[in-house]
Amino acid sequence: MILSQPQHNHHCYPSSSTIKPTHFFCLSTSTPPTNHRTHNSKSTHLLIHHLNPLQEPSFKPPHEEKRPRKELVDFSLARKRTPQFPGSIHPNEPNVDDMDASSSLSPIRKLLKDGGDELDEEMLVKAVEIRRNVIVEIFVEAMIKGKFGITYATNLASRLSDFVDFVMIQAASLKILPEFSGSSFNFRVKDVIDSSGVVPLIRWLKHNELPYPSIGKLICKSRGNLDSIRRTAEWLKTIHVKGRSIGIVMVRAGEDILERSTEEMDEIVGYLESKGLRRIWMGYVMSRCPELLCMNMEEVRIRSEFYLDMGMNEHDFGTMVYDFPKVLGYLSLEEMNQKVAYLKEFGLTSEEVGRLLAFKPHLMGCSIEERWKPLVKYLYYHGVSRDGMKRILTTKPILFCIDLESNIVPKVQFLRDIGVQDDAIGNVLVKFPHLLTYSLYKKIRPVVIFLLTKAGVTQKDIGKVIALGPELLGCSISKKLDPNVKYFLSLGIRLKVLGEMIADFPMLLRYNTDVLRPKYQYLRRTMVRPLNDLIEFPRFFSYSLEGRIIPRHKIMVENRLNFKLRYMLESDTEFDKRVQAAIEKRRKFELGITNAADSVSQVEGYRDDIPVDACDQNYLSSDSETIAQTM
């Protein structure tokens, strides 16, 4: 009993000095230990079975659970696993020793075995997208090796979707070649990118100031034939297309520009050169209308003859195309015919339309519905007739190209605000249509303010001044208006009186002082007229000194007559009648006819307060001080 008790105690609680492996599992016969760790459950199960072969485990490892028969067959027939690369769509065969290899089996293989046709297309698309990403990564690596920045390479790669697909197809087609039969997809992609020479081409295009979006469009447009880009670019240099314009022409020209031969494009350039377009202008024209290079020769000939048939010579045709290249290659023939027909409705002939388009070809780029018709309605509302519109069109055709609401309407409203009558606005626009092209705040308003503050024009008369002389709005204040005002003030004319003279004859401020000075000197020195005569008739400065003033004065001196300036400078017929009437009445007076003296004094415009013979002496003495100041 003494020996059995320690044995029992040792069996249940063995000491640390006598413990053996068998003692650790002495309680397994009654209650198996709980194992919470499953990642090494297989080794634990083997150890327990080795130490206690008679004991049947109450649990099984998770990897020994019963598998489907199809998976067991796959594992049993699996060979050594082949290397896998990103984007591969071929099923990989797992190794026998890899218990979790079924997770790496291709989804396409499972779908083919299970008959899942619905997901087949989706998985193929995902596989192709993976390969595209692989090609983009390889392309970026090639760009970095070519001394490009990673940001630039990434941005450019994002715009080369068509080129990426081309590389993928080429890399797949290399698989059938014996030298690439055992190579990986990545290796074939690198070979395609290197052999295409795309990286040096990108550097060359970037050197020609072409941004990466245009480079991407150009490479995609080439459809893999990158040599056509360099060939077309070299040809464009021969017609004086330079720098960034080379890429712009190739991008905007159309899909066929890279497929056209240089002979076809040389034929187009040669024809245009024979019609008046200089060779040195060709680069500018093609840069702004590259669509011409994609037309066939017959279409170019028809478009050119459309303008030449309107009486336009080769010089006008060449300058027209140079000023606005889109006039030849941007519009359709139907649109061109419609716009020419609309212009003829203003009363223009074909020859006049040809001259108009040669002068302002930008008219052909304007819309009839959006530009021309609203302007015509607006002008008609303000009383402009068809002849007036014709004058506006021929004088300032750019008005039919600018926006109505933002450019024309505010200026017309300003004319109303300063006092121009509504029935006179149409005449103002017809008389001087250039004012609609001036800046309201930089040109028109400053001139009006100058007339009100520096030229003596009153607020009441400013509308009349602008209505009679809208050309004043086009004069320079510093070079024209201000010098003229100072000159008239220097003659002794008061500012208020000058304002009245301007209201009577607004064109007074438009003459150069070099023209005004000789006329004034002749009036005061030779004709010996007072300053009031000039104030009463400021239109005196509008007549020619050699052609009208001096000959009329000589006639008056020869016949001993003296008329007011208004009647002295009237038309030849009226002046001759007035002279004959005055001579006849004086003849009757000399014969002693009764009341002849009264008749002579009653001749309209005749001045009897000054003897003609003594005029040179009296007026020289009376106005000597004023004349001395003005010399």
Strands, helices and their partners?
Blueprint: H1 4-12, H2 21-24, H3 41-51, H4 69-77, H5 107-114, H6 120-145, H7 150-157, H8 161-173, H9 185-196, H10 198-207, H11 212-222, H12 227-238, H13 244-252, H14 262-274, H15 282-288, H16 297-308, H17 314-323, H18 326-329, H19 333-344, H20 350-359, H21 368-381, H22 386-395, H23 404-417, H24 422-431, H25 440-453, H26 462-468, H27 477-490, H28 495-504, H29 513-526, H30 531-536, H31 545-558, H32 565-568, H33 572-590, H34 596-601, H35 615-622, H36 624-630
Helix pairs in contact: 6-7, 6-8, 6-9, 7-11, 8-9, 11-13, 14-16, 17-20
pLDDT < 50 runs, ≥5 residues? 1-32, 61-65, 72-80, 89-113, 608-631
State the end-to-end distance. Answer: 161 Å
Number of strands: 0
Shape: elongated
Outline the biggest β-sheet. none
Count of individual helical segments? 36
Q: Into which percentage range does the β-strand content fall? A: under 5%
Helix content: 55-70%
| Rounded mean pLDDT score | 79
Structural class: mainly alpha
The value of Rg in angstroms is 50 Å
Task: Describe what you observe in this structure.
This is Transcription termination factor MTERF2, chloroplastic. Belongs to the mTERF family. One of its GO terms (molecular function) is nucleic acid binding. The chain is mainly α. It has 36 helices and no strands. Helix 6 runs antiparallel to helix 7, helix 6 crosses helix 9 and helix 17 packs across helix 20. The termini are far apart. The N terminus and C terminus are likely disordered.
